[in-house]
């Protein structure tokens, strides 16, 4: 699997860095920045071929690549300026891949050299699988977008539909799997932490998700009070085709949130929706089904009361309702992928 990580967008001007803007020609008043990759305690990290960008107030002012000693030099930096040095791409090293790093507020003065370290720590790993209704979703373009920093990581699912992101920085990530250039992506979320002192970086394995080209089924769930619910954090949602018996299952995010979402890309048909909540210290795990007692859609505890929902290509159908106070309120929506 070809893996590209660490495309850094954390600084607003990193977008300019990605399109390869060349640094300006040497200015009469210019300075130099020498860089050493280092651990947070200052110990040198000897890592070659790390691409670095120097970003000034309103432009990319330099590009450099580290040598075998993990050092690099930016010359002819226009001065005076306040510069941020950031990594562009870090060489993959499996679960020991470093997360993107940066050093900000570097004051550059004409005719002087500033020596700085760029701290690096081991990044988090997120892996999982994507599937279509007919088998593994091979060759799907996958993105992991850090919603806290706007860093973006990219990879592609392999022949078994497996994907792996390494070197992720701390944050809440939106994972996206693309079926085609025109279809909306399948989306799910997770939170990870890079190495923190003696605490190791997160290594997260997510449940399998479905990335189909044409259909989209979304199941929403919230507590009756609309307050974040531990019962829904990581709860499993399964939809089963009433004709073929094919089942598709995924989990809600483990983030404690006021509303949880499960997304499926599946063929058209009639589906029974099942929700298995998570056990807490106050409540046991429960199995609930979407039903329509009294003509009103809501989740029920009796499987015999489950009412299938229709998934139709090109159509839109919505269901929602309340459940007893000890349960959850759920809404279901179906939308075509365009």
Automatic annotation (TrEMBL):
SUPFAM superfamilies in the cross-refs: Hypothetical protein PA1324
Native species: Curtobacterium citreum
Keyword Signal in annotation: yes
Signal sequence coordinates: 1-27
Protein name: Carboxypeptidase-like regulatory domain-containing protein
Alphabetical UniProt keywords: Signal
Domain of life: Bacteria
